[in-house]
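Key idea: predict the complex, not the pieces.
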Amino acid sequence: MQKTKGKQSILFANPPVVTGTANIGGPMEGQGLLGDYFDHLMEDNLHDLSSWEKCESYMLEQVIKTAAQKSGGDMSDIDYVFAGDLLNQLMSTHFALRSLSRPFIGLYGACSTMALSMIMGAITVDGGFANKVVGAASSHHDAAERQYRFPTELGVQRPPMAQWTVTGAGAAVIAAAGFGPRITAATIGKIVDLGVKDPNSLGPAMAPAAVDTLWQHIQDTGRQPAYYDMIFTGDLGSVGKTLVIEMMKEKGIDISDNYEDCGCMIYKEEQDAHAGASGCASSAVVFCGYIYQMMTELKLNKILLIGTGSLHSPTSYQQKESIPCIAHAVAVEI
Amino acid sequence: MSENIRQQMKEEAFQQKFNQVKPKPPLLKNIIWAFVVGGFICTIGQFVLDYFLSLGMGKKEAAGSATAVMVFLGSFFTGLGIYDELGKRAGAGSIVPITGFANSIVAPAMEFKREGYIFGVGAKMFVIAGPVLVYGMVTAFIVGLVYWLRQ
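Result:
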């Protein structure tokens, strides 16, 4: 049966169900706007472990286990785990999965990993290759900062456009049957690069990729933005969000009524995160916490989550390359 | 070729749009912070220098000792996790004085301690300060050469 639609989209024949989600955050996320929508909150960014990387692994392991339990089972029911993070060679994910001993497929989509893992999970389930899978992603502010930018204790001034990498993780269980919102459609993005080179402007750099994928989603599926109660992008921040609205307007579509960016939903103004949140965990904690809860309470019925990722590396920006970006859209409906 | 030009035009159009919505840094606030904090650090330095001079030290010895004290203070407050909070607001005001130089060495040393004393602390200590040292020495060499030639 034909499940592809248009150039880049998928309409699932038997839409897989998101039967349970779990998320975790650090202290700053707990004090933020969505503080009430976390399964676990850590007291500090180390959680009594010996490194930030270990802390990130702990978070990922924790959310995967909790999500499996919340969906009414345990880890032994999980056929595959699709997961990723921001660190080199997916360090946190690999160490988290070491003790879970489930079949595992590592994904790197930078900050788009949550949406990507859900799409890959849904494809696997709808294809009949698995009954129950987990999609998960994590990021850790300090671990990401030391890899991509400067040591955390260095006294540097962050520009107003900079975003704050979220310390947290999210996991969603995707099953062939069960109760919960369903993944009905997806649009896989292509790499878009409009020449932004500044690693402090990741949100604006990713905005064209988000617009490209959203536009393609509309073309492929025929669903207008008004079809969805809310459209969420992953971590564009306030500047990137403005750019998306502007660029969609230029294409003749006004999305300002039902569009929000997960990066603008996590921190309060006074938390000094500047343009907003970023990192894999930005969309992961918002989807697996707030959005999922809103959907199970029927306050949101149809959403489109567009995970956005900037696929640069510390080496690429030192070599003065621009930032290749990607966005993947996944439609979840109840 | 036309594909290249199209991409270039798209990039330029986007850059223009980006520049319109780009938030401006709060220039005046930043300047005031840098002025006050930078001035404060230098005033402390002057106090320390004057103190050593009052002990009867020579000018060279007093300057060296004052520098050592300021480097210690910079490292100490980096270790306490205060210097990065200061730097976030003061910018160049806390980077330019020698306390900022100390911060730029101690911060990576602390950060990479988990990778051990050889590949961590030892190797990474100068990731930020290294270029400053290299180009400082190169400049000193050039200035020295000019001075020598003029004699």
